[in-house]
Structures are given as C-alpha cells and as structure tokens.
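## retry 2 of 3
previous attempt timed out at serialization; input unchanged, resubmitting
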Amino acid sequence: MAVDLEREGGLAVLRLNRPEALNALSFAVLDEIGAALDAVAAMAGVRALLVTGAGEKAFCAGADIKELRHRSLAEQKHGAELGQAVFAKLDRLPVASVALVNGYAFGGGAELAMACTFRLAAPQAAFGLPEIKLGLIPGYGGTQRLPRLVGEARALELILTGRTVPAAEAERIGLVNAVAEGDLLEAGRAFAGRFTRYSLPVLELARRAVQRAGDTALQAGLETEADLSTLAYRTADAEEGMAAFEEKRKPEFRDG
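## retry succeeded, writing output
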C-alpha cells in the first residue's frame, strides 16, 4: 500500500508512503487516498486528520509523469476529474485536516496540501506548481485554490512562472499557516489541539460558512452564515458554552 492510515486517539494520520518515488501521485495512489478519506469520514471519535509524507525529502512531488504520457483527451480529462474529486473529499470531511509538509510539495502535492484545511511546513519544505514547465497547467485544483489562499495576482505569478516557494515565503504570503521547527508530527498534534477541544458539529458549521465565502456573492454568503449560525445556536454545545461563560468556568462540550 502506498497510503498508510493510522489512528492516534482522536486524530487520524494519513501518510503517503512512496518515499522511493518522492510520494508521487499515481492514479492508483489517488484511489488509495480517496479510500482512506472515506475511512476517516466513517471513523467515530476522530476530531482531526493529519496528512503527511514518508521520508525526509518530500511531502509529495506531484503526479507520476510517466502515467501522463500518450493519454487520450478523454483519459486526461478523467484523470484531472479523479484528482479533483479525491481532493474535494477533504472539503467534505466532518473534521478539519492539517497538511504537514515535510519536504517538496510540487504540482499535485501542493494541490493536496492546499485542499487541506490548514498547512504546517518544516523549514526545509518547498512549494511549487511547475506544470507550466511541461507545457501543462495544474489540474487537481491548483488554479482555483491557490488564488483563494494568496490572491489572484500572486497565484498567477506562481502558476505562470512555475517557480519554487520556500517555506518562509510560503508562510509570509499565506500559503501555509506556520513554519514549525522540530518534530512536524508533534507540531501537527499541537496545532490540531488548538481547535479539536471545541464542539465538532459547530466546528463543521463554521468551516461550511467560511467555504461559502469563496464560492458565492457577499449577500448570498451572509444568508448562508445566518442559517448556519442559527443551526449552531440550536446545539446543546452552544447552550453549554454560553452557560459556562456566564458561570466563569470552562465549557464541557459533548459534540451535540
């Protein structure tokens, strides 16, 4: 198996495990990632997903180029739609995901990281969408997610030049949430701990509301926010949170 999925208490850890190929995304690996994400969605008690790559060099070096040669247009379109559909499962997970970028994240690897809710990078990590250098453009969501993270002008620069972005710059432009020294997996656990103590249903509603901001006009987004904030208000956890505030104690959320 090229994808490992482990359970660590309230966390699920998905690890790309093709270090000899820099964790490249063959179509078979994409299928394995999709199956693993389905398994995470069905796990009871999981509060967040961590996504990383095996080995010291790469988070994921992108698509397996050998598989892209000599394909028909229909096959190429199907391949792009497969990658998009697999990464879109991260948007629909009932829990937030954190990409732990331990090395190169190029092409499809950068797109996988961008599909996660959050991104942490090791100091040696590097990002890039180099498809333009092959006469191609990103096909697994990069042209859509990158401008939502860093703005249209900067996204166009990165996509049209295909240049590599080091970790420090990625943090500065908003491509990653933080650069983490030391054990990246431990940093991911600590980062997830900052939000997993809150109500899972309400966390999901908040994610849904923010996701709509990039997909719709302001007024329609505000209407969605009103609907979702009302749903949050009706939860038992909201009642507990407000009561705890008035009583000057920590709330005890029960995900209800």
